[in-house]
Hints:
Order of helices and strands of chain B: EHHHHHHHHHHHH
Number of strands of chain A: 9
Largest sheet of chain A: 6 strands, mixed
CATH class of chain A: Alpha Beta
Number of domains of chain A: 1
Number of strands of chain B: 1
CATH superfamily of chain A: P-loop containing nucleotide triphosphate hydrolases
Structural class of chain A: alpha/beta
CATH topology of chain A: Rossmann fold
Number of helices of chain B: 12
Oligomer: heterodimer
Low-confidence stretches of chain B: 1-8
Distance between the termini of chain B: 39 Å
Distance between the termini of chain A: 32 Å
Order of helices and strands of chain A: EHEEHEEHHHEHEHEEH
Low-confidence stretches of chain A: none
Amino acid sequence: MESLHPNPEYAITLSGVSVKYRAPNERVGTLKEYVIRRLQGRIKHASFWALRDITFDVNRGEVFGLIGHNGAGKSTLLKVIARVLRPSEGRVVIRGLVAPLLELGAGFHPELSGRENVILNGAMFGFSRLEMEDKVERIIEFSELRDFIDAPMRTYSSGMWARLGFAVATDVNPSILILDEVLAVGDEAFQRKCIARIEEFREDGATILLVTHNTTLVEQMCQRAALLDHGHLRMVGEAGQVAAAYRQSQTA
Amino acid sequence: MLKSQKPKIEKIYDSAQRRNPALDELYEVFNYRYLILQLTRRDVLTRYKRSALGVAWTMLNPLGMMIVLSLAFSHVFRFETVYGYPAFVLSGLIAWNFFSQTTTAAMVNLVWGGGLLHRIYMPRTSFALAAIATGLINVTLSLVPLILVMLVTGVPVRATLLFIPIPILLLAMFALGMGLTISTVAVFYPDVAEMYAIAIVGWMYITPVIYPMEILPESYRFWISNLNPMYYFINLFRAPLYYGRIPSMEEILPAVIFALAALVIGWLFFTHRSDEFAYRV
């Protein structure tokens, strides 16, 4: 299964990816507790496989759905793809820049101005000074917050906060965009703007990974999808078929 | 509206191509140098943004401590032996504050700001490096009130103060190493943060920061000096300022060894453990 030279046609290649969480049986939160229990020989670790032997590829320019019930391992898989979590076993290869669109504006600081936060957030995505100088004005333009951009962000409404976050995250111009239930939040006008922007990305040839419970959305937007269940990959294939299989598993 | 310029060189991340984690981290820190600069800027700007005197507090804070300690200690302990006690205590406090603030900030930023590390990749040492950079700015600003105090209290200001970047650099290396070690432990056991806050106060009192070495009984001196790295750093920091002399090789060498050892051990320990952070933070 594991190829030495994964096909460069794929944006994401997962081969035999497993993630093992090693959690103490009881929650040991403090060092003192740990030392006491350790001396008493009462520390037992339970291994828990959040993902087990996941193998599939995502093509370039594809809108790919990821379906599964709560706790199926969707978020863990996203972390593996976003490079936040290194898999315990297996291999993941990502070609291109991944922008996580989880929790808009998570890295903002309330005491800094909107403009300062845009620069800080851009730096968190790994951009250099030169690249950010190029982006800042365009981001401010898109957010429609020019009049407030030099005021501290603690004076912003939550809507303004989200708008600036979305403007930064999408200006990153990622080749792989992760959408984790993002369409479930925000008002309707903002959602429309989000969907329009996502369409632009798709036309631009970006790969989009859509994570959701909403099978209708998967059928509408995705070409292919994968179904996760208790950390195992149950099915990969045409979006309609995978959505149907998920619906069936829910009613069974 | 949406620009179609694609990145010139495509980034490829391959989890199987794992080089040495310690070297990997160095490489990524270089790539993300702009982030570290921005984090430092954030720390410096936000710290004083809502106070009326702003960044002046960086200088007023140690000055206030110096006044309190000078009043209390010179009357209680009667250090007639210490010439220009305010300048003596201030030079020690500036170095100690740099160490305690940067190590604490490195740990706190990682443990409480670690939520970001769940969402997006960035070099894990960014927070600690930014904490050190912020400390370097603060310590440089603190030199201004120190020189003023020396002028006022009649302690001669000599050209040897140009030597000060070297003690600061060595102390920064030691603080980074300590900060990374403490942060790693604190990620797994959050109550280490509380324990460290207490330990650092104790550590200060057993280090000749606010009192001169000479007031200690002979029998304690070995333990306080030879085994306590902070003794060397405080002494090295104080020499070109308060004593107005270039430190000898016997004073510099132990500090270099402690600084390098702490940095190498801290960096290796942190980077070899940092893959597990996302599982824990």
